[in-house]
Amino acid sequence: MGNKVLILGGGISGLAASIYLASKGFDVELFEKNEKFGGKANELVSNSFRFDTGPSLITMPFVIDELFQSVNKNLSDFLKINRLEILCKYFFSDGSEFIAYSNKEKLLAEFENFSNVSQKKFEQYLSSTKRIYDLTADIFLINPIHELKILFNKKSFRTLLHLNELQLFKTMHEMNQSFFENKKLIQLFDRYATYVGSDPHQTPATFNIIQHVEYNLGGFTIDGGIYNLVRALEKLAVEVGVKLHKNSKVEKIFVNNKRVKGILVNGNEIESNIVLSAMDVLYTYSLMDKVNSREYNRYKKLELSSSALVFYWGVKINSESLTMHNIIFSNDYRKEFQQIFRDKVIPDDPTIYIYISSKHNMNDAPENHENWFVMINVPSKIELFREIEISNKIKENLIKKIANVVGIDISDKIVFEEILDPRKINFLTSSVEGALYGPASHSILSIFFRQRNKSSSISGLYFCGGTAHPGGGIALVILSAKIASELIAKSQK
Ligand SMILES: Cc1cc2nc3c(=O)[nH]c(=O)nc-3n(C[C@H](O)[C@H](O)[C@H](O)COP(=O)(O)OP(=O)(O)OC[C@H]3O[C@@H](n4cnc5c(N)ncnc54)[C@H](O)[C@@H]3O)c2cc1C
């Protein structure tokens, strides 16, 4: 085909799209502003500690596999992906604990012990989340939902016949509440809204498919760390002929008569009538002159998803009671989300996520030490983090809470520290206000109003990545790269 495609942004979605497009015969150039690829999925190596700075859990690894297969490569020659034995350990403020095992029998037994709810009830719950997945994945995740042909194909019509089962008009919380009375169980399952940076009390129950993805399809890790996925994608992109440019900040996207014409990078104009943005959607629009289209005007009004405050701590400890993924829940979950989304303040009693990759990769921390990635959800509002002291105040609270609930006092055991806050996320990845997933998923319309993968107003402009359809997270951004590259290929036929 020989047509040139310029890809803007070298996060996971940009790299994945470059491979898909090269496999289709396009001449692909990718521009990344930073000196390393990966975007939000990055790595911090310092003082003998190694941290994955962003994503820490892999789901739907078949999506990664499919990407490698598209260029006739074996994923296993590049990466070793392992199923986790324990998905996550949960700590509640009343001192109770719940271990989410991968093994179904152990998981069901743990549920029963924890809540006195019958195993059958859990199986019913998990099969109802599977049912929603089976009905919706094809339309909502795997295909370009905005293409009318897809939306009105036979399979979609069949889905519409089961509209009541899609749980479009209940929230995640309401559906969880309809299954369980136990407040802690509801909190546990409500938590999955945070995988799309959203509030379970506002997010449609359709998103309870995330539980199916994690409990039925499994949670995974990568040998050597999640960043090895980025290394593998970079290597593969080079092998299939993609021209990768680091330290290449895109400063402008040229549009003339509603047609994309090229870009400005490091002061050089590069022409192309196909441009695929794998950067934040709102930021992408800011690089064009006078955008005033319906899709943009609709998109810019959407509420943003949450952001994160992450402490990367090197800790002199061997924490036996923690596993690789741990959650310490807040006392009042509803209030926590109201503070994040309604009041736009940092929650006073945040749920704490602790990811310790050195539990699996021994080399990630020196002997008798661990690498703690300690994260809380915060509003996407850079202004809140103008003052450095704010993180120190939060740090004190987190250390106290970890000591109180888990019984581990690390106050004099932190030997290394780095902090990532919304301001820094914005600076490093151009994510508007540091939002992790672009728009929040607070209504069913937000699925349709997410940026479509092929612009409806600017010819030749395409989008992929966590802020476009179908959404954020490693698997979904690879799917978005696949959808966008298929749309580009189709437009050239
Ligand atoms: C703290 C944290 C925890 C997370 N946890 C998980 C998890 O456990 N599991 C999961 O699946 N997902 C998780 N995510 C989400 C996941 O990381 C993202 O959805 C995914 O990595 C987004 O990839 P992307 O390619 O769409 O965007 P990005 O990673 O944001 O990539 C955009 C790229 O564009 C580049 N760029 C920006 N401006 C320019 C410019 N002007 N010129 C050139 N390049 C530019 C950026 O530098 C960046 O490399 C997490 C994210 C964070 C931050």
Question: Which features does this protein show?
Answer:
binds flavin-adenine dinucleotide; 17 helices; five-stranded parallel β-sheet; Guanine Nucleotide Dissociation Inhibitor, domain 1; FAD/NAD(P)-binding domain; 493 residues; globular; alpha/beta
Structure description:
By secondary structure, the protein is of the alpha/beta class. Among the domains are: 4-38 and 225-301 and 441-491, FAD/NAD(P)-binding domain (3-Layer(bba) Sandwich); 109-217, Guanine Nucleotide Dissociation Inhibitor, domain 1. It contains 17 helices and 19 strands. The chain has helices spanning 12-23, 61-69, 104-115, 119-142, 148-151, 154-161, 172-179, 183-190, 209-217, 227-239, 281-286, 294-299, 333-342, 389-406, 422-429, 445-449, 474-491; strands at 4-8, 27-31, 43-46, 49-52, 81-83, 86-91, 97-101, 220-222, 243-245, 250-256, 259-265, 268-271, 275-277, 307-315, 325-328, 352-356, 370-378, 414-420, 461-463. It has a seven-stranded mixed β-sheet with strand order 7-6-15-16-17-14-18. Helix 1 (12-23) runs parallel beside helix 17 (474-491) and helix 4 packs antiparallel against helix 6. The longest helix is centred in the first third of the chain and has 24 residues, at 119-142. Residues 8-14, 31-34, 39-41, 54-57, 249-250, 278-279, 308, 310, 375, 425, 429-431, 436, 465-466, 472-474, 477 line the site of flavin-adenine dinucleotide (FAD).
* Anisotropy-based shape: globular
| Annotated CATH topology of the domain at 4-38 and 225-301 and 441-491 | FAD/NAD(P)-binding domain
| Highest-level CATH class of the domain at 4-38 and 225-301 and 441-491 | Alpha Beta
Averaged pLDDT: 94
Number of strands: 19
CA radius of gyration: 22 Å
End-to-end span in angstroms?
A: 9 Å
Outline the low-pLDDT stretches: none
Proportion of beta-strand residues? 15-25%
Q: Would you tell me the structural class of the helices and strands?
A: alpha/beta
CATH hierarchy: architecture of the domain at 4-38 and 225-301 and 441-491: 3-Layer(bba) Sandwich
Largest sheet: 7 strands, mixed
Bound molecules: flavin-adenine dinucleotide
Question: Number of helical runs?
Answer: 17
